[in-house]
Amino acid sequence: MSGEPVFFELGVEDAERGKRFYGELFGWTLSPGPSGAGFSIGTAGIPGGIHGGDRGASPYLFFRVDNLEEALARVRDLGGSVDETDLGESESTVAEYGRFKLCRDDQGSAFGLHEPPAK
């Protein structure tokens, strides 16, 4: 488990509006996301995305782990929690983008874990 930041996600109410706002603000190139419901950000240095239906959300920062199940167990062992919400991980999405899970630390602060796709 290396822990470097590998992905960020911006939650907004309306993904199209978010695409326009952030695209114009930062000059980002945005393309349709893997689920078709959001956008992937291709020019931000660290890969990122925008998804809708999440008004007022704080940005999600995902950290790389080698084994998601082991890392989730460690989060729980350390007093944190794991959000069991399905992040839409179909077999094809996992194969291309890997697996993601939202968590909270032992003080309630949100973060995400990302296991890259198998090579």
UniProtKB/TrEMBL annotation:
Domain annotation VOC: ranges: 4-116
Gene3D superfamilies: 2,3-Dihydroxybiphenyl 1,2-Dioxygenase, domain 1
PROSITE patterns reported for this sequence: VOC (PS51819)
Protein's name in the database: VOC domain-containing protein
InterPro entries, sorted: Anthracycline_SecMetBiosynth, Glyas_Bleomycin-R_OHBP_Dase, Glyoxy/Ble-like_N, VOC_core
Pfam families associated with the record: Ble-like_N
